[in-house]
Amino acid sequence: MANDESNQNDPRRHSRQVVDGIEHAPARAMLRAVGFSDEDFRKPQVGIASTWSMVTPCNMHIDGLARDAGEGVDGAGGKAVLFNTITLSDGISMGTPGMRYSLVSREVIADSIEAVVAGEGFDGVVAIGGCDKNMPGCVMALARLNRPSVFVYGGTIRPGPKHRDIVSVFEAVGARAAGRIGDEELKEVESTAIPGPGSCAGMYTANTMASAIEALGMSLANSSAQEAVSAAKHDDCRRAGEAVVNLINRGIRPSDILTKEAFENAIATAIALGGSTNAVLHLLAIAHDARVPLGLDDFTRIGARTPVLADLRPSGRYMMSELIRIGGIQPLMKTLLDAGLLNGDCLTVTGRTLAENLADVRPYPDGQDIVMPLSKPLKRDSHLAVLYGNLAPEGAVAKISGKEGTHFEGSARVFGSEEEALRAILDGGVVAGDVVVIRYEGPKGGPGMREMLSPTGAIIGRGLGDKVALITDGRFSGGSHGFVVGHVTPEAAVGGPIGVIEDGDRIVIDAETKTIDLRLEPGELERRLAAWVPPPQKAERGLLAKYARLVSSASHGAVTDVG
């Protein structure tokens, strides 16, 4: 079994079942063909889970990083075995039917890593991820397998000319539709925003999850704050290979690291950085696989005491590369630790506690304005607000920086898909005072819970960012900003209230009281819900249909193995 608890002190307790004894001569014969020697059969085997592909710039360089990690394993006395899993580019599939496969791919990635590691009998794992879904997918697998493991972030992309990134392109599309820029400028933005390898440049989902995973204790110090194209990232991978051998020899497993307190550290760090709403979805899913009780109310509890300190995109000014130049996230974590906002006793993949890892971290240099001091936060509590009300009785997640205000009341403009909403926004059919409602895009209804970066980018590009709200049972890219509320549960496809909103209904969203309500006459909501009829299934066969049958609510992380 993948989580077999027997013989915990044997560093080869999994691989010896595959290669020891005369009965396993056929396995050894096959492994000799891929480079094993007699000596290698006596070493702990470490699977290097690579998410390399040419599908996306986020992962195009990870084959080299995987080889670096393998060198680290081999140099520390282990035997590295490299293997691949899939990845999917959110940025490329965004706004298309293909985006329905994005969140689904998280489960495929986790399942595939679990299958290879458990099936091949690896004693430890180094998993290297560099895009929004393969990162949580990797850590979900590590939690399930519960074998000594280290996660490595593939690193952030460098900014394009004129401080551009992928979100600049999405917003330029809205600006072109509004006539604020021409075709030539749009082409110039498109051609320069992505200069090479690495994950999207702001505190979007990839950098948010890299930071959260480091705060969880599953990455080496600074793994989240290195450029993809850098000597530091190659060194990080080699050290990760060495570290996993140390974990194997010491018998330290993810269950020793992934505690409730560690998840609280990850939540606090993601909030302080102004991170993506996807952190809620993914941390819930990782906690599920780690068998740690974590719920939406934990985000509210921790958010009430944790300020936003980093002025990072999408709502801020700076990119991850600029944060790296002043020290990355370690000084911020040290600030939070010293203020009692992190638990320093949590064990990490270094074999030391978080407090020990941060003991010698120097503060940010004087004069920088990327990360604010605790005495002068950008926002005194979390920008990630969990909302409840008659529109979301099981919760919804809002990303409200405060720049767009904390209260919005408007008139519903209802759309049954992302495409319908985007057309209306680009054509000028959405105006100030509207609450754009995009439904039947949840985990089951999509299926796949697409991200709404195209509509939110178009809203910003048309200059409506502080004049229009958007709510959905889908979710948002880390690059989305404005007055946006996602993860509305129950979703429309299972009969949630979002499924019965009508054009013109008044919707009230309040980030201070943490409420989201549909203003109707008494009894009207109940009448509509009683008359609601489930729509036809969008997927009848294949992966999406299987996912729709299995997936849980977004409020539970949209996992697929709930009993």
Shape: globular
Number of domains: 3
Total beta strand runs: 12
CATH architectural label of the largest domain: 3-Layer(aba) Sandwich
Distance between the termini: 18 Å
Q: What composes the largest sheet?
A: 8 strands, mixed
Strand residue percentage = 5-15%
Name of the CATH first level of the largest domain: Alpha Beta
Low-confidence spans: 1-5
* Average pLDDT rating: 96
CATH topological fold name of the largest domain = Rossmann fold
Strand order in the largest sheet = 5-6-10-9-8-7-11-12
Helix proportion range: 25-40%
At a glance:
By secondary structure, the protein is an alpha/beta fold. It has helices spanning about 15-20, 25-35, 60-75, 90-95, 100-120, 135-145, 165-175, 185-190, 205-215, 230-250, 255, 260-270, 280-290, 295-305, 320-325, 330-340, 355-360, 420-425, 455-460, 525-530, 540-550; strands spanning about 45-50, 80-85, 125-130, 150-155, 385-390, 390-400, 405-415, 435-440, 470, 485-490, 505-510, 515-520.
Itemize the secondary structure elements and their pairings:
Elements: H1 16-19, H2 25-33, E1 45-50, H3 62-75, E2 79-84, H4 90-93, H5 100-120, E3 124-129, H6 134-145, E4 149-153, H7 166-177, H8 183-192, H9 205-216, H10 231-250, H11 254-257, H12 260-272, H13 278-290, H14 296-303, H15 320-325, H16 330-338, H17 354-358, E5 384-389, E6 392-399, E7 407-415, H18 418-426, E8 434-438, H19 453-461, E9 469-472, E10 483-489, E11 506-510, E12 515-519, H20 524-531, H21 542-550
Helix pairs in contact: 3-10, 5-6, 6-13, 7-8, 7-19, 9-12, 9-13, 12-13, 12-14, 18-19
